[in-house]
Recover the amino acids of this structure.
């Protein structure tokens, strides 16, 4: 990579660390360290909420998804605006108004210590692991494309984040998030402009070619529970998922607990309600444009260089034959794509129809050869090879003007670091507030808790880096934890919904939570094809039903 | 302005912005998907 790119990345890292550490000034007690003394403006909190949700996978994985699959992933976010509005009138006033540090602390006030302990423990377990995967995902890609050992990429992303989060607390997390969000959006807009300007045909022809392959199909109205992304799973399942994530996950709740008032906390969430779908549409559209770009510039057979090296070593003859077929198919597709654009200029309906038909056949041939190549890589490496996450980084490193690669890698790091920082900060808060201060040392001084909080942030940072470094070998364990996480996400939302029902009782909440998790596990193992977006609906509904019934039985026994 | 009326006003704004976003996506789909 050109030195200018490294200068951009180095400058970015230096800036965020210095800016983050600078925020430590004036933080002498845990209320400042964890909640910024509830002093932050809505727009800074709003940008921090968005930066926390937007991880590196959004930049490299979702653009790759746009390139291979098109716009339909956008449906995943259809429930988000509705969820934000619902939270604005329900949980946000409850949580902000009660003056708690963690969402789970509120559950003890409303129910009992065991419900708080269980929900906070589930949060620590799942977020601790997921923090590792958030570092691992971009680190694996960076290592592969730059030819580094994984540990160096993990260190490059993890160490600066841990340093500024540990020293500066939530002030550092939020104010660095603001700058990181600006960097990410700027990089996306510049990337989109460079892509459009660099195409050999106009935007209308580019979109026509992408549309012909179905990549601009953003809506699927079929009510099929097995389809992951449909309008209905996004709207209904997505609403429940976003309610759980923004309403009960400490990594998000803590963002808006730092706002000056309930109204500012609400406004910070509404920023996502306004901007999330347009921003995500831009990310996917960039992916679609990358697909069009590769119609006129020969893409590699393998976007992941590690796959290519492995196949070259183990099956060089098969690789040579696949590459020969691939180059031919790509060249033929390019010719036909140009023919489509020419036919459109001629405005000849029959010629356009015929050229589009030919284009789709050629495109299918390219896809078929690529699939064979990926199957070969899977056979050779022994692990399933899909190089979706490598498409955009490859494009950025090889095809963009000088300096753009540095800007994009800095944006990917910003996306990863903003999510990790918020998670470390919230993991530390839950550890100290829900467990250490609650059970181990309730009477400590503020200075003592501040020291413990910084140590807890450092511990979780180290834990996340270790998980990320061994992500390959821990693969199945991480998958188990993630799957386990999906069992209780909706169920925890159910407990919070139950908390808003006046007659709900502690045992109803606790056993309702267990019943919700059991119901999701049953659906998961009994009907594995059902989209995960429905799991949250099942979990939350079951908790409210079982918890409500148990509370009603308890109340009626008491009255008798 | 009370909290409730502010909420309803914001809700209307969110619905309008999302309706425009979804309409644009829909228009893109209808215009370019055969």
């Amino acid at each position: 990579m050109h030195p200018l790119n490294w200068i951009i990345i180095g400058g970015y890292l230096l800036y965020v660390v210095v800016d983050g550490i600078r925020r430590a000034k004036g933080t002498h007690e845990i209320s400042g360290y964890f909640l910024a003394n509830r002093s932050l403006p809505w727009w800074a909190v709003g940008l921090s909420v968005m930066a926390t949700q937007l991880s590196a996978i959004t930049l490299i994985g979702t653009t790759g998804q746009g390139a291979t699959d098109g716009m339909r992933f956008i449906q995943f976010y259809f429930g988000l605006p509705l969820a934000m509005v619902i939270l604005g009138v329900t949980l946000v006033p409850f949580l902000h108004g009660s003056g708690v540090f963690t969402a789970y602390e509120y559950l003890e006030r409303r129910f009992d210590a065991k419900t708080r302990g269980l929900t906070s423990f589930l949060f620590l377990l799942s977020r601790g692991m997921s923090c590792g995967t958030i570092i691992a995902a971009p680190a694996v890609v960076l290592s592969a494309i730059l030819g580094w050992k994984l540990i160096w990429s993990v260190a490059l992303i993890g160490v600066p984040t841990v340093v500024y989060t540990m020293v500066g607390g939530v002030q550092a997390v939020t104010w660095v998030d603001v700058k990181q969000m600006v960097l990410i959006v700027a990089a996306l807009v510049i990337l989109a402009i460079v892509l459009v300007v660099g195409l050999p045909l106009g935007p209308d022809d580019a979109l026509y070619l992408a549309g012909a392959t179905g990549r601009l199909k953003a809506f699927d109205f079929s009510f099929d529970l097995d389809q992951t992304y449909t309008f209905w799973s996004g709207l209904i399942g997505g609403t429940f998922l976003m309610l759980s994530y923004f309403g009960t996950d400490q990594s998000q709740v803590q963002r808006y607990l730092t706002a000056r008032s309930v109204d500012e906390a609400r406004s910070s969430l509404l920023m996502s309600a306004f901007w999330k779908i347009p921003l995500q549409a831009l990310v996917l559209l960039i992916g679609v444009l990358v697909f069009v770009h590769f119609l006129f510039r020969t893409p590699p057979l393998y976007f992941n260089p590690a796959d290519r090296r492995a196949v070259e070593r183990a099956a060089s003859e098969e690789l040579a034959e696949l590459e020969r077929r691939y180059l031919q198919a790509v060249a033929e597709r390019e010719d036909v794509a140009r023919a489509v654009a020419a036919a459109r200029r001629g405005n000849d309906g029959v010629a356009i129809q015929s050229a589009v038909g030919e284009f789709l056949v050629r495109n299918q041939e390219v896809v078929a050869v690529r699939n064979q190549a990926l199957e070969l890589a899977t056979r050779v490496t022994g692990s399933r090879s899909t190089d979706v996450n490598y498409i955009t980084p490859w494009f950025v490193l090889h095809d963009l003007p000088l300096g753009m690669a540095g800007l994009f890698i800095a944006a990917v790091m910003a996306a990863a670091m903003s999510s990790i920082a918020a998670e470390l900060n919230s993991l530390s808060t839950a550890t100290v507030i829900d467990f250490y201060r609650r059970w181990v040392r309730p009477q400590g001084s503020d200075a003592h808790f501040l020291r413990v909080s910084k140590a807890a942030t450092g511990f979780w940072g180290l834990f996340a880096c270790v998980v990320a470094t061994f992500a390959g070998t821990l693969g199945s364990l991480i998958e188990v934890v993630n799957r386990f996480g999906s069992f209780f996400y909706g169920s925890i939302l159910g407990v919070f919904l139950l908390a808003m029902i006046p007659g709900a009782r502690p045992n109803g909440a606790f056993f309702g939570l267990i019943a919700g998790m059991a119901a999701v596990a049953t659906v998961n193992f009994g009907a594995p094809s059902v989209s995960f977006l429905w799991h949250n609906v099942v979990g939350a509904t079951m908790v409210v039903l079982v918890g409500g019934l148990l509370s009603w039985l308890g109340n009626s026994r008491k009255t008798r | 302005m009370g909290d409730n009326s502010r909420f309803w006003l914001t809700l209307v704004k969110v619905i309008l912005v999302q309706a425009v976003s979804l309409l644009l996506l829909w228009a893109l789909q209808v215009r370019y998907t055969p």
In short: Chain A has a mean pLDDT of 92. Chain A touches chain B through 27 residues (CB under 8 Å). Residues 150-198 of chain A form the longest helix (49 residues).
